[in-house]
Amino acid sequence: MPNPGVLARYQGLLNLPEYTRPVTLLEGDTPLIPVPRLAEDLGGGFDLLVKFEGLNPTGSFKDRGMTAAISEAAGRGVSTVICASTGNTAASAAAYASRAGMRSVVLIPQGKVAAGKLAGAVAYGAQVLQVLGSFDDALSMVVSISQKHPIALVNSLNPYRLEGQKTGAFEICDVLGSAPDWFCLPVGNAGNITSYWMGFQQYHALKGTGLPHILGVQAEGSAPLVLGHPVDHPETVATAIRIGRPARGEQALQAAEESTGRIIAVSDDEILSMQRQLAANGIWVEPASAAGLAGLARQVRSGALNLRGKRVVAVCTGHGLKDPDIITRTMRVPQVLPPELEALESAIIG
Ligand code: F0G
């Protein structure tokens, strides 16, 4: 059966109002890709699969929650939506809003959004505004304006976003027949970790699919949940998770605790190194998306996690195409050849 989009596929399992009017780009149904060579590199003896969310319509996992939030908004006649974003939410909100015939406004931290995301938001027709501040500043501004004007907030403070994002957990259980033993993902504003835990719990209650231990991973320069306090000036190369005051922070900590998992931080070098390792397995993700696996690697290396005989699923949240700058900035400019066979031979054979 062709994929009907996550709302239609999991109708009845998502807590959305009756008046909801579906707006979909046929998101979801993303592949769960085995990466046995990466598992070997991490010590071997366990199954490792990547849920590649970069293959959603706008290139990130945000489309799952956005179809729900925009569908609810469309059902009650909303004409304008707004969000703060490190980039992916912006592109997704813009795409779904346009699809629904709504206006979208996105507020991004100035100079800290990857080129592919900014271009997406513009291409899909959002009004893009930059704030001289962080994502956290932007979020508090859009929350205030949505309370003052009839503009719908589509950040993950919007409960319907979480309802849509639960479907990632359902899909994993549907494909594997049960939840994995360990489940790892990057954590920024903490909507995704909250949604996955809700989804795994709901499916377990309904179908006895079991519960994973959750490993949430932040970047060291933006790790409020690891430090136990907000970070005023978050920094990391993984701009998607450059967040110092996660809106769903409490729920993220609860998910880690209830699942007997943990939230840890990794360095930018570990993130970029895992991005390269994933690409060496044919999966190019943006830096933030590699954080979950970078955290898993750190835990295995330090002996904090023994995965022998276990099944592990890692969510890679966004496509590498979203953030090409990080690669093109550091690469060697490709060699230029004259249009002659000898030149090609000498370049590749020597
Ligand atoms: N990975 C990517 C690629 C993201 O864009 C984000 C969040 C996360 C992970 C973290 O997910 O916030 O649910 O914990 N991006 C948001 C945005 C903040 O504006 O696009 P989270």
Q: Major sheet: size, sense and barrel closure?
A: 6 strands, mixed
Mean pLDDT: 97
Element-by-element helix/strand order: HEHEHEHEHEHEHHEHEHHEHHEHH
State the share of residues found in helices, binned by percent.
Answer: 40-55%
- Bound ions, cofactors and other small molecules, one mention each: ligand F0G
How much of the sequence lies in strands comes to 5-15%
Task: Explain this structure.
43% of the residues lie in helices and 15% in strands. It has 15 helices and 10 strands. The strands form 2 sheets. A 6-stranded mixed beta sheet has the order 1-2-10-7-8-9. A 4-stranded parallel beta sheet has the order 5-4-3-6. Helix 4 links the parallel strand 3 and strand 4. Helix 12 packs across helix 13. It binds ligand F0G. The site of ligand F0G has 23 residues, from helix 4, helix 9 and helix 13.
SSE blueprint and pairings:
Layout: H1 6-9, E1 32-34, H2 36-41, E2 47-52, H3 62-75, E3 80-84, H4 88-100, E4 103-109, H5 115-123, E5 127-131, H6 135-148, E6 152-153, H7 159-165, H8 167-176, E7 182-186, H9 191-207, E8 213-219, H10 224-227, H11 249-258, E9 262-266, H12 268-279, H13 287-301, E10 311-316, H14 325-330, H15 341-348
Parallel strand pairs: 2-10, 3-4, 3-6, 4-5, 7-8, 7-10, 8-9
Antiparallel strand pairs: 1-2
This protein binds ligand F0G.
Ligand F0G is lined by residues 60, 62, 85-89, 156, 186-193, 240-241, 286, 288-289, 317-318.
